[in-house]
Design brief:
heterodimer; A: mainly alpha; two-stranded antiparallel sheet; two-stranded antiparallel ribbon; elongated; disordered C terminus; B: mainly alpha; 2 helices; 0% strand; flat
């Protein structure tokens, strides 16, 4: 148990550090994203440390349950394809423009509007909401030079059952609980001039 | 916490973005809507997620 917790904590820590500071490594002409390497290394370490039985992995992957990781992966990939399709059509840029148009010069209003749009997107696209959030954020940010980067970090929906889509999760008041948090707040005008801070911002954005 | 910073005005103007292929957009959004509804009710009607 203790080993599992230690390996898990180390993996999480390394994952965050990798995402923030060394997102890619270059081996010759190959560039490899580190996030999945770190996660995979953590999983392998679990198996090597005999904290996880290979049979358990096998049965979990083949289990006919709603939290089967392969099914979730299929769901995620399918929704991602759908979101890329909408993005290619300019749907998110359109949403971003409309949001900025309505907010005028008020950052507070921008924050509230983003909150509402992201809430709705989260309701309709539970598992891929972070992808949508990222798309929307990246559509909005280059269009404006706001002095505060108020990215909304709506946590994933609180699913009544693990990974299961239930009608109740489509109810807005439940879906937007717990409330969003402003996780990054850096003066964008300053950070825009500083590549490291800009990278950190975007990494935070991607990480979420 | 961020109240002071949020009070500052936004500098810059939004760009105009026009969606040219509206039919594809409608198809995409319709897909999304159907998927969302089916995912929401699938556990009640015995469909796999």
């Amino acid at each position: 148990m203790l080993y599992s917790v230690v390996i898990c904590a180390l993996t999480c820590m390394l994952l965050i550090l990798a995402v923030l500071f060394v997102p890619k490594i270059k081996i010759g002409s190959w560039a490899v994203d580190l996030y999945w390497v770190v996660a995979l290394a953590g999983a392998v370490a679990m198996v090597l440390a005999k904290q996880l039985d290979v049979d358990v992995i096998d049965s979990t992957l083949a289990a006919d349950t709603v939290i089967n990781p392969l099914k979730i992966l299929v769901l995620f990939l399918s929704m991602t394809i759908l979101s890329i399709y909408l993005d290619e059509l300019g749907f998110f840029s359109y949403l971003a423009d409309k949001t900025l148009e309505k907010t005028g010069a008020s950052q507070l209003r921008l924050f509230v509007y983003l909150y509402c749009i992201v809430s709705l997107l989260t309701v309709s696209l539970q598992t891929t909401s972070s992808f949508f959030r990222l798309r929307l954020s990246s559509a909005i940010l280059p269009r404006t030079h706001v002095s505060v980067l108020c990215l909304i970090w709506l946590p994933n929906l609180w699913p009544p059952t693990h990974g299961t889509w239930r009608l109740s999760s489509a109810i807005l008041p439940i879906s937007i609980w717990p409330p969003p948090t402003v996780s990054v707040s850096l003066p964008i005008s300053r950070s825009w001039r500083c590549p490291l801070l800009r990278r950190v911002q975007w990494r935070f954005c991607c990480f979420n | 916490m961020f109240c002071k910073q949020l009070q500052l005005p936004v500098v810059g103007t939004p760009e105009k973005h026009v969606i040219t292929d509206k039919l594809s957009l409608v198809v995409g959004i319709a897909h999304l809507a159907v998927c969302t509804v089916l995912l929401s009710v699938s556990s009640y009607i015995g469909l796999k997620m």
